[in-house]
Amino acid sequence: MRSEFRWLLVAAGFGGALSAQALAVPGLMAGVEGGGGTNIPFGSNLPCRYQVLYDAEELPWTGPRILTGISLRPDQNTSPGASPAKGFLDISVLVSTTARSSTTMSATFADNRGTDATWVLTNQIVQLPAQPAAATGPRPANIHFPFTVPWAYGLTPVTTGQPARNLLLEIWIHSQPSGSYRIDNLSGCTAALATFGNQDAACAVPGGAPVTIAADPTMLAGSSYAWHIGGAPPGMPFLLALSLASGGGLLGNPAWPLPYPMYDPNDPTQPSAALAALGWPAPGCWLNVDPVVWLAGATDALGAGSAIGFVPAGRGYVGQTWYAQALVLAPTANPLRLITSLGHESTVCGPLSVARNYAFYAPAASPPQPVPVAGFVQYGVGPVLEVW
User: Fold this and answer.
1) In whole angstroms, what is the distance from residue 74 CA to residue 138 CA?
2) Cβ–Cβ < 8 Å for 375, 51
3) Predicted TM-score (pTM) above 0.85
4) How far is residue 67's CA from residue 153's CA, in Å, rounded to a whole number?
5) Dist CA 335 CA 115 (whole Å)
6) Contacts of 132 by beta carbon, 8 Å cutoff, 6+ apart
7) Are the C-beta atoms of 44 and 176 separated by less than 8 Å?
8) Could you state, in order of their start, the residue ranges of all structural domains in the chain?
9) Phi and psi at residue 242, in whole multiples of 5°?
């Protein structure tokens, strides 16, 4: 009890400092559009129970923090045009820490609440604001829910000595009028993509263009991922070189820095020093990746092909960049009979450690639908919001 009392005195004295700055949750989404939009829970005329769980690693702060409100972001990706206000909604909001994680979230709403679960807003009549057209995202987080009861994240860890737990937010819409209203959502993500390295015009079939390389726009941990080759000779095998590092030296040798030529720049009729054992040069071609893994494929009749790899599952892989390059058999291109693409980098953009659980219901139906005690759980899905 004394420990809890001391903590409350600290919170009272420093609560303003602990909660003054609005912070994006998940923290990685500060200034970044969520990758998708959703009409859940505001795009219906039905009541809805809605929970979202953020693992502690997604929170952009450490230690105790006083929360006095949340703000949701309107959607920009799938709804860039102007949208009308929606009102009025009867809403309650609960905040809690929880021992459940995004991967163990229960479909039963009550199972996800911790001992510090607090209704911070009860039967508040709310109008969701109109949104002007926006050319670029993300939009400002302007769907505000100020708490009538401030809530302290970190109280339970301070008083029990246990580590900080995950954050649960529950929005209960008791009633709402019909109409669409989309919010920014983590249902997808856009990987950071770029090309790098060297590729000369001579690295091509005579009279043709250099080989191109592209990749899928979304790269998710725990999912397959594809790289796409174009402009290659038809019906030819190719290799895709993969690495988790860029730069450095070929085969780890700093004397052969990447990008590394597949020919002697002083005499293009000869191979470079690192590739002397191959016996033949590939003028204009470069190795841009020091490969750790190879994937194989073959081009179709149009000279296109794809190679598919698998990104390991786990939140720790989010933010990791993969580096790739294609090497294609081209018998008429050069003495080595190989041509290469530029390097291509793709960054794992999700899923973040977030999950949602929701259920719509119709109390005015015949017979009336009761308030649901369980909903539908989706991993990696949830709103981008700000806490303040």
Assistant:
1) 8
2) yes
3) no
4) 7
5) 72
6) 82
7) yes
8) 2-187+351-387, 193-347
9) -125, 145
Residue 154: its pLDDT value, please? Answer: 82
Q: Among 242, 229, 222, 227, which residue's Cα sits nearest to residue 348?
A: 222
- Residue 158 pLDDT more than 60? no
Q: What is the 3-state secondary structure (H, E, C) of the chain?
A: CHHHHHHHHHHHHHHHHHHCCCEEECHHHCCCCCCEEECCCCCCCCCEEEEEEECHHHCCCCCCEEEEEEEECECCCCCCCCECCEEEEEEEEEEEEECCCCCCCCCEHHHHCCCCCEEEEEEEEEEECCECCCCCCCCCCCEEEEEEEEEEECHHHHHHCCCCCEEEEEEEEEECCCCCCCEEECCCCCCCEEEECCCCCCCCCCCCCCCEEEECCCCECCCEEEEEEECCCCCCEEEEEEECCCCCEHHHCCCCECCEECCECCECCCCCHHHHHHCCCCCCCEECCCCCEEEEEECCCCCCEEEEEECCCCHHHCCCEEEEEEEEECCCCCCCCEEEEEEEEEECCECCCEEEEEEECCCCCCCCCCCCCECEEEECCCECEEEC
Name which of 349, 231, 210 is nearest 286 in CA terms: 210
Q: Which two tokens stand for residue 237?
A: 């095998």
Segment 52-74, tens digit of pLDDT: 999 999 999 988 899 999 999 99
Contact 274, 268 (CB under 8 A): no
Q: Which residues on neighbouring strands pair with residue 175, listed in sequence order?
A: 90
Task: Say if residues 109 and 41 touch (Cβ distance below 8 Å).
Answer: no
User: What CATH number does domain 193-347 carry, 3.40.50.300, 3.10.560.10, 2.20.130.20, 2.130.10.10?
Assistant: 2.20.130.20
Per-residue model confidence as pLDDT tens digits over 159-174: 555 566 899 999 999 9
| Tokens 């592209």, located at residue | 214
